[in-house]
Amino acid sequence: MKHLLSTADLSRDEAVGLLDTAARMAATQSREIKKLPTLRGRTVVNLFFEDSTRTRISFETAAKRLSADVINFSAKGSSVSKGESLKDTALTLHAMGADAVVVRHWASGAPYQLAHAGWLDAAVLNAGDGTHMHPTQALLDAYTMRRHLAGRAQGLRSPHDDGVGADLTGLRVAIVGDVLHSRVARANVALLHTLGAEVTLVAPPTLVPVGVEAWPCRTSYDLDATLVDWQPDAVMMLRVQRERMSGGAGAFFPSPLEYARYYGLDARRLATLPEHAIVMHPGPMNRGLEISAEAADSDRAVIVEQVANGIAVRMAALYLLMAGDRSAEGNDL
Amino acid sequence: MTELTAGPTTYVLRGVRPLGGDAVDVVLDAGTVAEITAVGAASADGATVIEAADHVLLPGLVDLHTHLREPGREDAETVASGTRAAAVGGFTAVHAMANTSPVADTAGVVEQVHRLGEQAGWADVFPVGAVTVGLDGERLAELGAMADSAARVRVFSDDGKCVHDPVLMRRALEYVKAFDGVVAQHAQEPRLTDGAQMNEGVVSAQVGLAGWPAVAEEAIIARDVLLAEHVGSRLHVCHLSTAGSVEIIRWAKSRGIDVTAEVTPHHLILTDELARTYDATYKVNPPLRTAADVEAVRDGLADGTIDIVATDHAPHTREDKDCEWGAAAFGMTGLETALSVVQQTMVDTGRLTWADVARVLSTTPARIGRVEAVQGRPIAVGEPANLTLVDPSARRVVDGTSQATASANTPFRDHELPGQVVATFLRGRATVLDGVPVPVHPGVGGAR
Amino acid sequence: MSPGPALPEDDPDGTTVLSASDVARALTRIAHEIVERARGVDDLVLLGIPTRGVTLAHRLAARLAQIDPAFDAEACVGELDVTMYRDDLRRQPTRAVGVTRLPAVGIENRTVVLVDDVLFSGRTIRAALDALGDIGRPRAVRLACLVDRGHREVPIRPDFVGKNLPTAQSERVRVRLEEVDGVADSVEIAGRAEGDGSAR
Question: For residue C149, what are the CA distances in angstroms to B93, B339, C44?
């Protein structure tokens, strides 16, 4: 693969291949020596136009575990009003000889532009763009679900070999919260559909995008009914940003309390889930808003594991984008 | 209007088809149409003959909606370069929008733009005056002073911004009646479009760009036609883009409300699917809509609900487009491709005749702008020779960087379009010959 | 595991150099040599290099258990994927990363016998030694291969060889094993004489 820009571009086999590679990477991470020589002499640039210490550190760790050199390039602010343009930044990175650019950007589509405008020939890895996509987050979510749940719909009690080779056929996943502004939700809906899972988005109507009817999933405004009647295998709680509640007439819901009352995952709602169901959150959490402390800390929660899996998934993505002869690679992913 | 004829050139347009009708010879002399006669009957003595068999002769096109950017953004376009592009596109008159820097909200600025147009000599420039001071939507600009100025402003618009305050809009509609002006509304409810980047719908939900809902346009149009009816004013709706807007205009006209509406060439042909490329060339306001909307505006133009085509020619520098979609400027150029797009979407499909094209691109816009005494005239002996000669069988591939406009943000880059403006005449002087602009004074004007 | 350029599945030029019974005899001999060299089977583990090296490791383990029933063939065989340690990754399309399964008894302070089908440039074994070093610290590492075709590019030497097979650089060696290929065991050599170069 040449770039990793959107989960919507991944075929089932490509997605399973990525998860399988992640499983191999994860296996190396329990060793005393975690570092592999695979990408020695290659350069990964973390290009962050938006703050995200967690994502940057995860990518940095992944690249370093594969022995790549890592350059962190923070370019906050609007490219036009506050300094260097995306194009000039890209040309600079090209001149520096970057082999891969991990890009986080406030503008939807910026990674796509970097990959396609002809400004640089490095592999582009989308680390989250605007309200569009966050492919490695969706991949680590799918990886986590597969580890815990693969084969369940086929009647297996627990997945064999962390589910290597398997997809997520038949699994039910509820994604709850601010779907409208969430690149995590978009990335997950596309990937989970490709992997055979069923998805229900649960949100107040103000936080469901117009046009959602074209997405390969169901939508519901009722969290309780979804949990009780649909019995999801995994519940993914999305972060609700504080600024969505303020803004007077433009606020998306009346108050944090009301949001938590209808859309927060608490101990009572947790108890209505099937016994095997897992609770996920891309972090950082707003405890007491979209998720209560009881839910976040319960043994159903795999939120900390998601973080660890993020490193393996990002190692896999870097490996698949960078290790081989790039001129021989066909697809954009 | 200053007489701009550069010399005594007499032109014989041999075998042209006025409004696509029967072939004739048309003789232009001393700035007017001197003779219309049978093919081969016009004398070639001392005249420049243009062999134009099967070429269509139209009245010079009149654009009601052009951004010339001067004063303020001469890096994107000047009055000279913009009107040169207009001439290449077959236009003999443009209405220059008010969102310059400084804003055209005083007699001084509109007179400056008007004078720059006269100096350039490519086309008549009719400045549009701002409705509100600084386009801020808070208090009326001195509309009367602009109307009384040398620029004789009749069209007022805050284009780029909407006159969203209902009381202010009412006052503007009423006030301009005193001098037979018209308010051209950029219909965009600002609160519903805060941060909006593209049409709100299936595509915006997928590509993650903030949505610009159709209702934000339709709600303002609905309000404004009712206001116009209430105060008995005429209203012009700029760049209508949605199926719902067409319905509202149709309804308003059926009630006898004095409203006119325009559609841009790009809304006649392009859809929001183009946003999937994240190429900011396709970022425009109002945004490209769905295929169903494109069909609806074509229907509206065909049945007369939509009165005119106006380009909303919006040049931007490369820096303002070669960046993230969210950071890029809204707008696309259109003067040099408008007629071709109308031919492709409406004429070649049999939905408009060439006479209809003359109506929607010349006669009616001239009437709305109240310049019908000098522009958008019939093709008849004694009329001013503002004419456009089109070869409808030509095909050309658009190259943004070689266009006459100073900016390259055409959405039709590398597209093949039908039709070629062969010649444009402004009061008998050729501003374009063989598809190439002809400066008033060689070495001047063309170089800017 | 670098048998040279890939071989078309039914290369008519292929000459069989080892038959199924030759392969079986060679493995039996290697098994005896391993025991002899290690003075028994204590602390012995086998690590196969995918794909056919793993199969060969399992076959050798079965023979070791026959020679000395104290050898636990289940617990003392593993597989070692060397993909991420290769020095030629950038020269070809991306390889899938394989699985590494350590023997149940581990490799610390054991005598590890690396098992591969064909020994050629030696670069695969170089990668395997690096991989092994990241996983643990065996007491000793030995190398067993079914075929040694020469042309070493690094100073690596096998301890146990089924057959030394002098080849030209351009020739190709193909190993087939029943468990992997679904046909009778064989070793073939192809690309001899005038075929040289053209197939590379």
Answer: 84, 74, 26
